[in-house]
Amino acid sequence: MEITIRRPEPHDTDQVRAISNAIYPERPEAASFWEAIAGTAAAVEAAESTNTATAPAPGEQSVAFVALAGGAVVGYASLRLESGFPRQWHYGRLTLGVAAAHRRQGIGSRLLTRILAETAGYAELRIRVKDSETEALAFLQRRGFHEHQRMLHLVQDLTALPHLTPQPLPEGITITTLEAELAENPDPWLAIHELENACFADIPSGDPFAPPPYDGFLRMMADPNILRDCFFLAKAGARYVGLSFAARLADQPDTLGHRFTGVLREYRGQGVAAGLKLAVTAYARSHGYTRVITATLDANSPMRAVNEALGFRRAYSEVRMRRVPPDIPLTK
Ligand SMILES: CC(C)(COP(=O)(O)OP(=O)(O)OC[C@H]1O[C@@H](n2cnc3c(N)ncnc32)[C@H](O)[C@@H]1OP(=O)(O)O)[C@@H](O)C(=O)NCCC(=O)NCCS
Questions:
Q1: Can you give the pTM of this predicted structure?
Q2: pLDDT tens sequence across 252-300
Q3: How far apart are CA 259 and CA 244, in angstroms?
Q4: Alpha-carbon separation of residue 232 from 3, 183, 235, 288 (angstroms)
Q5: Which of 6, 78, 151, 268 sits 20 to 30 Å CA-CA off 175?
């Protein structure tokens, strides 16, 4: 059957999402990206056909393609600026998927070749693949991608978890909630942001660290799903030295989504993180949740040990692959 590769159109969105969500149900594909890209794709096509394109700055623009067989979308590829990194690093995030019934016919290779032609300006490309997708992992390895991180997605099943007794905290350390703290200190935000960033800097990700900006932190804290009575802070006197917090998940009312745990370097190795994260577990139990989910890098052995002790078990892993340089031609 003849295969056509073209830029996406607005009516492709549902078909792309159906293919993507069948491959990766844990990471639902947002309609908004494909709706927006379909709008810009039309403009790019028009400019290309009249040769009046004002070239976007390299690596500044998201692009996408779909593969069609018999008029139906059977595959997609997208390239977006990796979120969480400053623009000057130009890490491009790829997605690539072919509907199961249409694999091994060259469609994935054609989509990848097409999108690799649009990677000028990116310093490197990244793609996330579930570890169970062994064919996709091998396909990408044969085309210059290599694993650089592995994210463990973990579940704490509260219906099966025995009661866990908190261990005593080190001398002088207390645990409170953001809600209680706000009653005494109406403006703890900058101090919490600085604490969070100091902890983020020590995540063993292998990536250069860029502190997330304060305005983004304030936006996150305005999200009503972040529960201020499930936002635990460890204090040494008046100083914030650790935090652990969780958020409601709109589509899973029985599940609490753990967000982040961190403790300042000089207070580590004394059970503060375990005490904070156990407070999240206790909150979840007492508010009727049946599970807590969290994610930790495989390389983060201290956090893995805390999670293991609290009964978190692996649901699946996500292999994060990179291709550096991004634009060497495919050898296949
Ligand atoms: C990875 C993926 C996109 C590959 O798609 P695909 O359309 O099967 O890719 P291709 O057909 O181009 O290539 C697959 C293999 O089939 C081979 N092949 C191509 N045409 C063929 C044919 N007519 N007959 C037999 N084999 C063929 C290719 O050579 C390739 O093998 P190789 O890697 O040894 O060269 C697809 O497996 C997929 O969607 N997987 C799940 C998605 C996923 O996890 N994506 C990454 C996360 S976003």
A1: 0.87
A2: 999 999 999 999 999 999 999 999 999 999 999 999 999 999 999 999 9
A3: 7
A4: 54, 14, 10, 18
A5: 151
